[in-house]
Amino acid sequence: MPFEPRPSQPPYVLRPQAAPYQAERADRAFFAGVYRWMALGLLVTAGVAFVTANALVTGALPFNKWVFYGLLLAELGLVLAISAMVHRLSAAVAGGLFLLYAALNGATLSLVLLVYTGASVAAAFAITAGTFGAMSVYGTVTRRDITSWGSFLFMGLFGVVIAGLVNLFLQSGMMSFVISCASVVVFTGLTAYDTQKLRAYALQGGPVAAAAPVAGALTLYLDFVNLFLAILRLVGDRRK
Predict the structure, then answer these.
(1) Distance of alpha carbon 211 from alpha carbon 232, whole angstroms
(2) 116 pairs with which residues across the strands?
(3) Which sequence spans correspond to the domains of the chain?
(4) How far apart, in whole angstroms, are the C-alpha atoms of residue 220 and residue 240?
(5) Which partner from 21, 97, 110, 240 sits 20 to 30 angstroms from 43, CA to CA?
(6) pLDDT tens for each residue of 105-142
(7) What predicted TM-score, i.e. pTM, was given to this entire model?
(8) Cβ–Cβ contacts within 10 Å for residue 228, how many?
(9) Interior CA angle at 197 toward 160 and 221, to 5°?
(10) Through-space distance between the first and last CA atoms of the chain, rounded to whole angstroms
């Protein structure tokens, strides 16, 4: 799996500016919801991946490539649905769709647990968590406007996607290494970029869409998972 699909732009828009104290309060409440949903999504993904991998190893769940491709299409559909309908969905419905996506993603990522050693997966996760945390903090506290990174990062994302699809047929080890390095750069930058965009949204004050924290969580969740997969491809040891 070369990447996890994500919307080309975060699914939120800026609103009228609020008073500073109201904006700071909204910022804290909004990000609490974002990171709470993101953490829950990662837990669901990890749990489903572990259970599915065990079922595949024991033969309790036979692998079917068409089911796998169907899961990938379902994931893409859920990402697009949440992004497109974020301002019309209730928090409960958006949260349910997000957790369904996280579960489907766990089922597809279970294959990663079968390819790489447990130590490699744990190491890649630790590196990802540290990198993601540092860049998310940077995106939150920096006074520098990094929205100018957007065009560069999304061009890089497009290039990574195209190169990944091409390499599915070429199966080039060198090309895979280059794609993984580029992916680390792109998704590290996107983590800071998306965090700052989310904070700008929260600081505007005024009414917030009920599903906005879920949409924000989905954006950062996809940054985290894609960064994890890229790092795992670089440092992971495959099972013999």
Answers:
(1) 31
(2) 238
(3) 20-235
(4) 33
(5) 240
(6) 999 999 888 999 999 999 999 999 999 999 999 998 88
(7) 0.86
(8) 23
(9) 55
(10) 20
